[in-house]
Amino acid sequence: MGTHSHHHDYNFSEQFVFTGRAKTLSLVAIVVGVVAIAFGLLSSDHIMVERTYANLLLMGYYFTCVCAAGGFFLAVQYVTQSGWSSGLIRIPQAMASVLPIAALLLLVIIIGGLFSHNLYHHWYAEGLTDPQSPNYDALVAGKASFLNAPGFLIRQVVFMGSYSICSWLLAKYSYNEDLDGSLHSYKKSFKLSALFLVIFGFTTPIWSFDTIMSLEAHWFSTMFGWYNFAAMWVSGLCVITLIIIQLNKRGYLSWVNENHLHDLGKLIFGFSIFWTYVWFAQFMLIWYANIPEETVYFYKRWEPEYKPWFWINILINFVAPVLILVNRDFVRNRNMLAFVCILLLAGHWLDYYIMVMPGTVESHRGFGWIEIGAALGFVGLFSFLVLNKLSKHALAPAKHPFLEESLHHQI
């Protein structure tokens, strides 16, 4: 490995041009999503309205998780002072910059789900905590000091607000780094990342307890937060990898090669195993103990309409990456890696679907245009916002102190 500078070999001032097919497709997907969601919400069928709103929560949460994973990726790279990733850092920065919009959208969906569409009816309904009421529920009343509307909403605002501010600042400091050329911005990024990782590490499990686990308030699992974190992290890594591969194919990011993709593929492989470990530990312990207040969660998911999806979920999210990404040649092949990323993003959508639907739509007996339309709409919105942000700055962090290390990265 040589030590001379490669800066002159690359055009570090290149900018992504967000026009043509990418822009058109993202806008078309947004329109399809808006139409599908509007039809669902305006339907005279109560179950259809419930299904539509549950899909809004699912996709709003998924969208926010992927953007938060972009911020988490940045923080990890800064704290570990990683050099290999500095050449591709603009991708997670664009995702992190979009997090405030994603968080605000999810907050609106959650407020609507709490007060209008009764998604959180397992704990937020009249009389559940009143011993004199016929609706009194002793289990829910015992959790009322935590599960109450003011506390729930305050936590949502504080958690998503702190993630958004930290992620946005990390992106801003990096853009400033290219302007001032000093280590001042990098040092600020390092300190902020250390703080962000502490906040993120302690609060993401609670955030998932609130947003998703409380949809079925009788049930709880202390592993649920880490299970959600693993899904968020794998999905975020897949999106980063997929965007890099697509940009590479269009002639951008020429300094990002199969060695960088290899590292991203290894991370996806490793954390897919971690996701499976947490999934299996949560399921196996509950199955083996066979305690009614724990098994009720899986009992619903073993009903005929969910059971096939339950097992397909583990097949996609564990078996596929293990069989494919364990091969060095496959993990360095752009098309194969892109295929695995798309498969895992669909797999983790299914993972969230199984988390959300059984507890929110009591009489759900279908899968169709509502699910597809809502997913397309949010994919289009994410693509439009992230690619638009990506087009605003040069694709290379030319003044990053470790950029040279990234240019020489070899495995």
Number of domains: 1
3D shape:
globular
N- and C-termini, Cα separation? 11 Å
Fraction in beta strands:
under 5%
As residue ranges, the low-confidence spans are: none
| Count of helical regions | 14
Q: Considering DSSP H and I runs of 4 or more, what fraction of the residues is helical?
A: over 70%
User: Mind describing the biggest β-sheet?
Assistant: none
Q: Count the E strands.
A: 0
Q: Give the ordered list of helices and strands.
A: HHHHHHHHHHHHHH
**Mean pLDDT, rounded to whole units?**
90
Alpha-beta classification: mainly alpha
Radius of gyration: 22 Å
Q: What is the strand and helix layout of this fold?
A:
Blueprint: H1 20-41, H2 46-79, H3 90-115, H4 138-142, H5 149-180, H6 184-211, H7 224-249, H8 258-289, H9 292-301, H10 307-325, H11 328-331, H12 334-360, H13 369-390, H14 403-407
Helix pairs in contact: 1-13, 2-3, 2-5, 2-6, 2-7, 2-12, 2-13, 3-5, 3-13, 5-6, 6-7, 7-8, 7-12, 8-10, 10-12
Would you give an account of this structure?
The protein is built from 14 helices and no strands. The chain has 411 residues and is an all-alpha fold. The chain has one domain. The protein is globular. The chain starts with 19 loop residues before the first helix and ends with a helix.
